[in-house]
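Quick illustration, no need to memorize.
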Amino acid sequence: MWASKRPGPPAGGPQKKLIIKGLKALPTLPLSYKTDTLERLRSAVHAIQQNQPTTQGLEELYRDCEGLCLHKFASDVYEMLQTELEKYTRQQLLQIDRSPDTHAPAAILDQTRKFWDDYTQQLTMVRCVFLYLDRTYALQTTNVASLWAMGLSVVRQHLVETNMRSRLVRLFINEVTSERNGQLIDRPSLASIARMFIDLGLYAQSLQPSFIDATRDYYRSESLRMINYLVPIKQSAGVSAEARSSGPTDVPGYLNHVQRRLDEETQRVAQYLKPSTKSTLLATVLAELVEKHTEKLLGPNFDAMVDADMVSDLTNLYSLLLPVNKLDLLQQNWISYIKKTGLRMMQASDLEATLISGLLAFKRKLDNILSIAFQNNARLIGALREAFEMFINTRRSKPAQLIARHIDQCMRMGSKLAADDDIDDIFDRIIMLFRFIQGKDLFEAYYRRDLAKRLLYNKTLSTDTERLVLQKLKAECGAGYTNRLEGMLHDMELSLELSSEFAQKQPESAMNDIGFQGSVLTMAFWPTYEPMELVLPRQAEEAQNAFTELYAEKHKGRNLQWQHNLGTCLINVEFNEGSKELQLSHLQGTVILMFAEQNELTYSQIQQSTGLENNELQRTLQSLACGKFRVLTKEPKGRDVDTSDTFHFNAKFKCPQARVKISQIATKEIEKESKELEAHIHLDRMYRVDAALVRIMKARKTLEHSDLVTELLKQLDFNVSTTEIKERVDTLFERDYVRRDDSNPSTYHYIA
């Protein structure tokens, strides 16, 4: 705990007392204090404005200002300072304003820039001297601006009250116009002028609106001058930008010019304009150069750019149309181009030979443009899909048939179409076309027919590749779509197992001269084939009967119907030149084996032994005696076979190949088969229309004809005409599924 003690009296004597008395008279300011002090401060302001040293130190001047403020003379000091700034500003700006524009317009801007730079520095010095005034009187008094704001308002007031503001704006715009025309200008001066207008609060209300208006007029004139003299696009994507921009230009050159102008305006904002001006400025440029001329930039010019695959120019076009909200016009031209080009391809004379390869190349080019130029815009992707679906279905069954044929060509062993490319990529692109066709049931029928030939004649590239395609089709259309196709592959796998078992169970003596392999096809999966009567050679018939017995043992109650017109065989034949292996059909092989015992046979003898009809026998003999590989000769000679002809075995046959494939003579049966296939699909479609009509009427009970048609088309995945719909509705009347309303014939009622 602390303790304090009062100090005792000082040693050496008694304590002295200090007495304070009041002043006899109050102190007073000298009579000339205010005047003299204001004069000293005024002189200091003049010295600062003339860039000369003050007679007194800055600290002494500060004390003078402080003294006046403390003695209630702050308003006088503020008024003196404002007056001096107004005089100086008026004197300097009037001197600049007297200079004519004709001699050196840029000199006026440069003088204004110099005045502004000096004035702001001087104002900073003045504020340092009168800092006490700024922090007390100006801060604490209502409606009294700070020294900095007051100094700016002096300049602003002079510019507004005189013509100098509009003159500076006009000169500023003239300098920018000169720069746009390719001349060099003093950018720092313009930047200083722009900063002055910003600091004075005149930029948004004076400089920017006039500048935007001048920009609009400039680019309106430039766009009209260029647009009216556009030349046709050079059909080459490799033309340089310099070549396009020299003299009259085409649309790609014009687009490059617009991009260059936008870059220039962006740099202009960065170097001497307020950043907030950028959006308005670029929008103005785009409105005059692009938005008002969109239709001229598109149309035939757009078609030419897409035709020539000008991806970079299309990228420019898209980037310019996007900010002006003109993608709707681009979409219309995009759809129009795809439809026109697609319809031209669908109407080509060499349609069957070039359509699918042409469509694949066309689709790849459009996808590349969409990805790079149009940035995968969703609207344009949908437009491409819409246009493709329109033109590709104008030929109804043809696209489905040709796509199936193209896949067949790719899937065949030794195909050149799939030799250099990734097979998976090829089928992905084909499936893209498949998505657009409406007759997918027709495609399935053609594909099933071609798949059957590949599997039965052992021409498929590989089973794995076949399954790959089926997986892609299943992903597009569902498992039910590929059920029969998968069943065909399964049949071939089971047939290989059955043939292997058959070979193991046959005695070696029976299989020395002949090898037999049978394929058991489920009728529900495979195309329909008409049976053909053929008398087989003895050994082949014995092997066939043995295979039939084995199948009957394994599958009770099932019967086999042999399709000899689908079978193939390999026969070793001895010629003078040596042994050759002939790859033949069952019909050709049966005929050739007859010459193993006799070198000469008549047409009648061959027909009697084989049991073939005239048409099939004539085609078979024509392929053996009149084709490229003539293993038989006939008398009389000629390209046609007659019932009176005689045939001889050609022992002098020569061929450098060890295995010789002799194809059957092509007939119009293929065209007939296609017509029958389309007729079958049409009949199946009509059954589906009937089922859909009954389903709709059963659910709705009563319906107008127009509403019934609308509902029907929503449920169908193929095209059907109004005439066909009317015919199917009439059949429902006949079968008592629906009836007409008594008072309104176009209204139908479902009959339960």
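The chain is about 60% helix and 5% strand.
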